[in-house]
Design brief:
single chain, alpha+beta, D-tyrosyl-trna(Tyr) Deacylase, Chain: A, six-stranded antiparallel beta sheet, 12 helices
Length: 487
C-alpha cells in the first residue's frame, strides 16, 4: 500500500477565525434541556483545576468552529505529539514499511566459520525484543554459521545515538531510555531483587515471556542508605546502578532504562547465539558499517501496526525512532531529536495546516514542546479520513466514582498525554446523533511543573490529584459538546 493511501491530503481549506469566546447556540423548541449543561468556566471551577485549560472543538466535516478557549496559546502537548508523529511516519514511510535487523559477515564463510567479523546491524526497529534476537540467532545457525574467526561488532548508528530522550528526566525512569538505530525490549533492562537471610539477590536480565537471559552490560549494587533510591554512573561499556537497601523491602522488580542500546542488544545476541554453539565474544560498537554479506535478518511488523501499539501504550522510544526514520527517509540531515522534530514541524505546518508547531521531539516528553489547541484540531480535521482515526485508542467515559461506563452515548477515539501537571487529549468524538467533532484539550499548570526537582519527577506531590481533576474536566467538556453540538 502506498503512503498516500495512509495519509490523505486535502486541498487547503479556508478556516474561518475561531470564536474568541464560547459559542452559545440559540435554543429552539424542544432544546431547552441544553440549559442544564454546565458552561466551561463552571466545569473548570467545579473541579478546582489549577493552571490553564486550552481547547478547541470543531465540526469534523465542515471545519466549523464550535467552541474554543485560549486556543491560540502554545502549551505542552505531552503524548498527543505521538498522533502527529504517526501521521509524519505514515506519510514518509507508508503503512506497510518494515524495519529490518540484520547480521552481516565479512571475509566469507569457510566450513561454517566466518573468516572475518560478524556484525549485528540495527535498522531502526523499535519493536525488536529478545524473542526476535533468538530467532535471528537461530537463522544464523540455519545459514550454516558455526564459528567466527574475527570480532563481534555492533552497528547502531543508522539513527543518531543518544543516551536519553530527555536528559532532564530522573536517571531511573524506564520511559526515558537511550535511543539509537538498534533497540531491544524498548531499551529497558529488568531489575529484580529477592531478600534471603538478610541479604539481597539481584538480577539484571532481558526477559520476555519465553527467555530470560542475564545481562552483563548493566549491573546493580545494593547500598546501605535511605536516599536516593537509585544512582546511575556511566562506566565505559557498563551501565552501573546502585539502589538503596531501605527501599527494597522483601522483593520486587522494575524496568530500568538502558543507556547503551547497541551494547545491550549485542550482549543478549551473543547469549542467544551461544545457545546454538556460536561463540561471539564481547560485542564492540563500530561507528561506520563495514561491508559484508547478509547472513540472517529479522523484520518488524508493518508500520501501521507499530503505530497502533505506539498510540495505545504511548511508548516514547517507538515515537522517537519512527519519527527519526521518517526524517531520514525525507533526506534531511539531523544530529538529534531537536533537529528531527524541526523537520516534522515544517512538514506539519504544510501538510496539516498547522501554524505554529513547536515540537522538540517526536514523543512529547521534552518540556519545551508547544502546540496550540487550534492547530491540533486543524490537523485532525485535515486528516479526518486518513489512517489515523482507526488506530486511535477508545477513550473510556467514567461515572462519578471513576467506573467505566460501557453504554455511554458519546463515542471518543483520541490520544491522551500525561506529564507532571500536564494532561492532554485530542481526537474525535461522535455524538449520539452521529455528528463527528474534532477536538483538542490541553490542560497544564506550568508553575507547579517548573517547581518540581529533577529527582522528584517520577511522582511529584499533588501530581496524581491534579491529573484526576484534569481528566474529569476533559470528560465534562466532551459531554458538554456532545449535548450542545450533537444535533
Amino acid at each position: 500500500m502506498a503512503a498516500t493511501a495512509a495519509f490523505v491530503a486535502y486541498a487547503p481549506r479556508a478556516f474561518a477565525a475561531p470564536p474568541t469566546a464560547s459559542l452559545r447556540p440559540v435554543l429552539r423548541g424542544g432544546e431547552f434541556y441544553k440549559r442544564a449543561v454546565r458552561d466551561v468556566d463552571a466545569i473548570i471551577a467545579d473541579e478546582k483545576l489549577s493552571g490553564q485549560v486550552a481547547f478547541a472543538v470543531a465540526h469534523a466535516e465542515s471545519g466549523l468552529w464550535l467552541e474554543t478557549k485560549q486556543a491560540s496559546v502554545g502549551t505542552p502537548p505531552a503524548s498527543v505529539t505521538k498522533a502527529i508523529t504517526a501521521l509524519y511516519a505514515l506519510d514518509a514511510l507508508g503503512p506497510e514499511h518494515r524495519f529490518e535487523t540484520k547480521v552481516y559477515a565479512t571475509g566469507g564463510v569457510v566450513n561454517g566459520e566466518v573468516q572475518g567479523d560478524l556484525i549485528l546491524a540495527g535498522g531502526g526497529d523499535p519493536t525488536l525484543d529478545t524473542d526476535g534476537l533468538a530467532a535471528l540467532a537461530a537463522a544464523l545457525k540455519e545459514a550454516g554459521v558455526r564459528a567466527v574467526k574475527g570480532k563481534f561488532l555492533v552497528y547502531e548508528a543508522s539513527l543518531p545515538v543518544l543516551r536519553a530522550i530527555d536528559p532532564a528526566q530522573p536517571d531511573h525512569v524506564g520511559y526515558n531510555p537511550g535511543v539509537s538505530g538498534l533497540a531491544l525490549n524498548f531499551n529497558r533492562v529488568h531489575f529484580e531483587w529477592k531478600r534471603a537471610g538478610g541479604k539481597y539477590a539481584v538480577t539484571m536480565d532481558a526477559r520476555t515471556t519465553r527467555y530470560r537471559p542475564d545481562v552483563a552490560m548493566a549491573r546493580m549494587a545494593v547500598r546501605d542508605r535511605s536516599a536516593p533510591v537509585y544512582t546511575f554512573e556511566n562506566r565505559g561499556d557498563v551501565d552501573s546502578w546502585t539502589v538503596a537497601r531501605e527501599a527494597l523491602g522483601n522483593g520486587g522488580s522494575r524496568w530500568l532504562p538502558v543507556r547503551k542500546p547497541g551494547l545491550y542488544a549485542g550482549d543478549v545476541f551473543a547469549t542467544m547465539a551461544g545457545s546454538h554453539g556460536i561463540r561471539l565474544g564481547v560485542p564492540k560498537i563500530v561507528e561506520a558499517m563495514p561491508e559484508g554479506v547478509v547472513m540472517a535478518s529479522h523484520s518488524s511488523g508493518p508500520l501501521l501496526e507499530i503505530l497502533r501499539d505506539m498510540l495505545r501504550f504511548s511508548n516514547n522510544l517507538t515515537a522517537e525512532m519512527v519519527g527519526m526514520a521518517a526524517t531520514q527517509k525525507r533526506g534531511f540531515a539531523f544530529e538529534d531529536l531537536v533537529g528531527s522534530a524541526a523537520a516534522m514541524n515544517r512538514w506539519a505546518m504544510g501538510a496539516l495546516d498547522m501554524e505554529a508547531a513547536g515540537l522538540v521531539d517526536h514523543s512529547g516528553l521534552g518540556d519545551d514542546s508547544t502546540v496550540t489547541a487550534m492547530d491540533m484540531t486543524k490537523a485532525l480535521i485535515k486528516v479526518r479520513n486518513s489512517a489515523l482515526r482507526p488506530i486511535l485508542k477508545p477513550f473510556t467515559m467514567r461515572d462519578d466514582k471513576g467506573r467505566p461506563m460501557k453504554d455511554h452515548p458519546i463515542e471518543v477515539y483520541a490520544k491522551t498525554g500525561t506529564l507532571n501537571f500536564v494532561s492532554t487529549l485530542a481526537g474525535y468524538l461522535t455524538a449520539q446523533d452521529g455528528t463527528v467533532m474534532a477536538f483538542a484539550i490541553f490542560a497544564s499548570d506550568q508553575e507547579r511543573r517548573a517547581a518540581i526537582k529533577r529527582e522528584d519527577r517520577e511522582a511529584p506531590s499533588g501530581g496524581r490529584t491534579w491529573n484526576r481533576r484534569a481528566k474529569r474536566v476533559q470528560q465534562a467538556l466532551i459531554e458538554r459538546w456532545g449535548v450542545m453540538y450533537g444535533t
